[in-house]
């Protein structure tokens, strides 16, 4: 299957973890990809490995002018953009008592405001392409509660997805959100909470955490024309956690 053949995609947070998995799959399926990250060394190394159809741009997703530059670079390299994957995000496990205003606003800016900026920046290009697919990576904590800041922002991504889908459907632009549970990324497997996560995994109905590629399967489907009538919806990949 080459469902992404000839697509021109922008993927944020693409240097490591789930984002890297998305970038690799898109290239494998024939897409041309501009991927962004603040991790310059990892991004440049991945782009060099993947070849001419992958371009890395160092990019702060909270910077509106930076978004315009990314879209311009994508158009210059490959033509009008018809896929956007808003993947970049951060998490923080602090209580309301512990979290500062500065920390809270940082989470909201990176996880929520960046999604708005990305959608807004890419729309003119998608109109040139006469349609497209926007995939916003939320979280299972955009469905059920979790840490403050993180949960709030991920619920907001879910809501923005629905609002954008309603407004953009007539332009042939689909907008969907993906809600992963506990995924085996470097942030999880290399962090201080490895044992806690392994213990938590026993509570998951499927009794395991997920691999990044399992999320990528859904992202690739939603980005492709095979998901041509799916918009404004949330797609949950959590091993059954939110069913409990």
Automatic annotation (TrEMBL):
One of its GO terms (molecular function) is diacetyl reductase ((S)-acetoin forming) (NAD+) activity. GO terms for biological process: bile acid metabolic process. This is Diacetyl reductase [(S)-acetoin forming]. Catalyzes the irreversible reduction of 2,3-butanediol to (S)-acetoin in the presence of NADH. Signal peptide: none annotated. Keywords: NAD, Oxidoreductase. It catalyses: (S)-acetoin + NAD(+) = diacetyl + NADH + H(+). Its EC number is 1.1.1.304. Belongs to the short-chain dehydrogenases/reductases (SDR) family. InterPro entries: KR_dom, NAD(P)-bd_dom_sf, SDR_fam. It is an enzyme of class 1 (oxidoreductase). Residues 7-185 form the Ketoreductase domain.
């Amino acid at each position: 299957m080459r469902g992404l053949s000839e697509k021109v995609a922008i993927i944020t947070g693409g240097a490591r973890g789930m984002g890297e998995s998305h970038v690799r799959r898109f290239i494998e399926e024939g897409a041309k990809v501009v991927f962004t990250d603040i991790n310059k060394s990892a991004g440049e190394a991945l782009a060099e490995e993947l070849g001419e159809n992958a371009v890395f741009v160092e990019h702060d997703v909270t910077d509106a002018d930076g978004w315009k530059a990314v879209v311009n670079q994508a158009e210059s390299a490959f033509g009008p953009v018809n896929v956007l994957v808003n993947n970049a995000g951060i998490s923080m496990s602090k209580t309301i008592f512990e979290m500062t205003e500065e920390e809270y606003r940082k989470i909201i800016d990176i996880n929520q405001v960046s999604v708005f900026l990305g959608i807004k920046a890419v729309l003119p290009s998608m109109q040139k392409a006469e349609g497209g697919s926007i995939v916003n990576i939320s979280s299972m904590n955009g469905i059920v509660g979790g840490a403050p800041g993180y949960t709030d922002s991920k619920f907001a991504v879910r809501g923005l997805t629905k609002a954008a889908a309603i407004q953009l459907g007539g332009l042939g632009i689909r907008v969907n959100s993906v809600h992963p549970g506990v995924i085996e990324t470097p942030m999880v497997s290399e962090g201080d909470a490895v044992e806690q996560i392994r213990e938590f995994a026993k509570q998951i109905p499927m009794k395991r955490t997920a691999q990044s590629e399992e999320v990528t399967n859904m992202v690739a489907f939603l980005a492709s024309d095979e998901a041509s009538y799916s918009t404004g919806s949330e797609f949950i990949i959590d091993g059954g956690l939110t069913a409990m």
